[in-house]
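Figure 2 data, in text form.
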Amino acid sequence: MGGISLPLGVFGLSLLFSVVMCVHVVRTNQQLYWLGIILFFQPLGAPVYFIAVVLPELTRGKAARTLGRAARETLDPTREYRRAKQAADDTPTVANQMRLAQAAAGLGRWDEAERLFAEATRGIHAEDPTLLLGRATALVELNRPAEALPLLDQLDALPDHTPSPQESLTLARAYEGLGRNSEAETAYKWASERVPGLEGLARYAAFLARTGRQAEAREMLAEIDRRVARTKGAFRAEAKAWRDLAAEALG
């Protein structure tokens, strides 16, 4: 089926493993598209299902859950969105609406995410930090920084509020969108040293390139390349995407 030739004994074991995985799909009420993946992508389908679904169930370890989530998102990127939408339709709570907004944002559906965050940020939830930051980020992605900045100011004014690295990065992008580059650089620099992964560093490098500081941006891109080379497994594709964002700004 998949075009891969296997010795007879290995093929038999592969077939048996596939049957076991199909039984697992049915008995645990998994999405039925997994049956198609297992049966029609021999001999790779069953191992993919095992990594994506069975292994996290067996180990419950953080690394296994991350690997499984990455596999599921690659094979079915709208899975979380569909589940979140069903939950919001069934029980339209703020928590479910927030989950749907975050899922929409994860797919780059920023108009929908902004609307959902705006609808949820009302009444007793008007000062919810997650909702405020989520909506501000969506507005920045929609190139509406003038609307995002008041939300970030409101977030910063909350009692006992401690700015997060992601908040600082969104603030930097809002400042840049408004041409307030000095304030943007301060925020970019702070975020680049604290945001997990390479997003903060890549966005700072892109900012430097856009503001004419090509040499500094190239130095930062070289550091990003070194980090990408050390990145393994499920995180490598994401790291490379951020590297490409910085490189594109440099031209």
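Caption note: The chain has a mean pLDDT of 87.
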